[in-house]
Amino acid sequence: APSGRSAALRARMEERLLAARFRYINQQLYTSTSQEAAQLFQSDPEAFEIYHRGFAQQVGRWPENPVHRIVRYLRRRPASLVVADFGCGDCKIASSVKNKVHSFDLVPLSPLVTVCDMAKVPLAAESVDVAVFCLALMGTNLQEILEEANRVLKQGGTLMVAEVASRFEDIRAFVNAMAQLGFKSVSKDLSSAFFHLLEFAKTGPPRRRPAPGLRLRPCLYKRR
Ligand code: SAH
């Protein structure tokens, strides 16, 4: 029936528009500072919803979601460890482990979220055992964000970074830059074609700035 056809056409157009808006917001997040991202979402809460729907769709196409890998990792370690989840999204980590988890994001998708810019989280220095960035190292002020993670981590504490594989230009340069920021590489899991999972331990405060090599390409999704 023609009306059925036009409804289907309309649904497809709406789907395309949402996909286009997702790609646009995503690109903005990767090309602005975290302060600018905070302003974007504050001024347009709908943008956040669209972003999250698109993000979940993208990661849903992958054979494995890195957040599950991080949950498995945390379950192998003592539940007494305090965790900070930077850019927590829908709080999969906080809702899957027994640990005390501080969940930070720009907009609350869940009541477990503390709303803040991850470059400035409301935690005391050296109060956290494990800091997590799961597909969340988005701002261009990467160094400032990682310095904040360093501040809240205890000496010897763990930093877990899961990032889209294609964002890394040069893993060795990235790991060297992390060393300057006070994070020693503990393990690298490059086995997924989609994401890299890097584990670091805090060795001390950031040594000097800026840390060359600390660059990640924006993750831009193709039109489908
Ligand atoms: N870690 C979650 C969500 C990843 S999506 C998961 O793996 O499922 C990236 C998240 O980082 C988004 O929820 C986005 O809102 C958040 N984010 C981006 N910039 C941020 C900032 N400056 N401060 C806090 N959260 C931020």
Automatic annotation (TrEMBL):
Write out the annotated subcellular location: Nucleus, Nucleolus
GO MF annotation terms: methyltransferase activity
Gene3D superfamilies, per this entry?
Ribosomal RNA-processing protein 8, N-terminal domain, Vaccinia Virus protein VP39
Highest taxon listed in the record's lineage: Eukaryota
The UniProt similarity line reads: Belongs to the methyltransferase superfamily. RRP8 family.
Supply one GO CC term from the record. Answer: nucleolus
One GO BP on record is: methylation
* Alphabetical UniProt keywords: Chromatin regulator, Methyltransferase, Nucleus, Repressor, rRNA processing, S-adenosyl-L-methionine, Transcription, Transcription regulation, Transferase
| Name of the featured protein | Ribosomal RNA-processing protein 8
**Catalytic activity, EC:** 2.1.1.-
Job of this protein: Probable methyltransferase required to silence rDNA.
Database matches in CDD domains: AdoMet_MTases (cd02440)
Q: Which Pfam families match?
A: Methyltransf_8
InterPro entries, alphabetically? RRP8 (IPR007823), RRP8_N (IPR042036), SAM-dependent_MTases_sf (IPR029063)
